[in-house]
Amino acid sequence: MLSKVTDNIFKLVIHIPGGMHEVNSYLIKGKNGYTVIDTGLYSKEAMDTWKAVLESGVVVEKVILTHTHQDHIGLAKWFQEHIGVPVFTSKLGYKEMLKGRNADASTRKLKGLIKKHGGPELPDHLKNDSFIFDFEPDGFFEEHDKIQFGTDFYEVVWTPGHAPDQYCFYQREKKVMIVGDHVLKSISPVIGLWTGEELNPMKEYYHSLAKINHYPVDIALAGHGEDIMDLSDRVQSIKEKHDYRLQQLLEQISEKGKTANDLCKAIYGESTLYTYISPFMATLTRLIYLELAGELFRVEENGIVYFKKTIHGSNAQRKLLKNL
């Protein structure tokens, strides 16, 4: 079930229902067992996979979380309570866990955010998975810390954007970086506002993409999909795609203004409710980025937000996109 990545790192692909349909966990071999990076979603499929791994004789020493999205933290509580394995997350991740425990408040904010930006009403029966956050981690890490995974020490690198608590882990001697969902090989990670709070994660994401380019990397291990052997090239490709989408938005906005929902449909087309939220979030976070960069402004009519283009000439637009 485990595939070998390097001399002491193994990948476990966990198939999960919905979402990305699979998530990568990494097991790093040490003298006293394996360090597990991310656990997969709380689901029967994921739990059965881990049970089979453990029954094969694999001993898990500890669990480390790259970030606290459901498909990465999902079985952390299970590991801690049922397997007796300590779980470590970042201090920022713990703050996100506290929000996750209050599912009703987060759902209300998310529904209000989508409605305010022209989107549809979300159903009242959204899945409540707050229980996966309801445990106390055994310890915390922060940026610049060094953590032992197996027999090697990894540097902690904060890369917010996809999640406020997204961290990468870098092994300097072996030039290995565990990137979680910060960079994926085949698709661009969704930059969203999953707790319903209006922030500017696109700005953080651009900075985080530039940040990891300072690290020499031979292989990057992603939270979904294949390993990345050319991290710098992939970072540049993702940046160029976001640049392109920002320009698309600027070209799509009319004098009357458009909602995030209008622009999402114009760029990504129609979709079902269950495939809608990710492209909507990608659109909204780019609009907020452009707004805070001075390219757009918003007006509110009957509780709905419309974005309009700031009138200061195309030269300013080109300068903005050039300096992203």
TrEMBL record:
SMART domains: Lactamase_B (SM00849)
Signal peptide: none
Transmembrane segments: none
Pfam families reported in the protein's UniProt record: Lactamase_B
Domain Metallo-beta-lactamase, residue spans: 22-224
Domain of life per record: Bacteria
InterPro entries: Metallo-B-lactamas, RibonucZ/Hydroxyglut_hydro, Sec-metab_biosynth-thioest
Name of the molecule in the record: MBL fold metallo-hydrolase
Organism encoding this protein: Oceanobacillus longus
Species classification: Bacteria, Bacillati, Bacillota, Bacilli, Bacillales
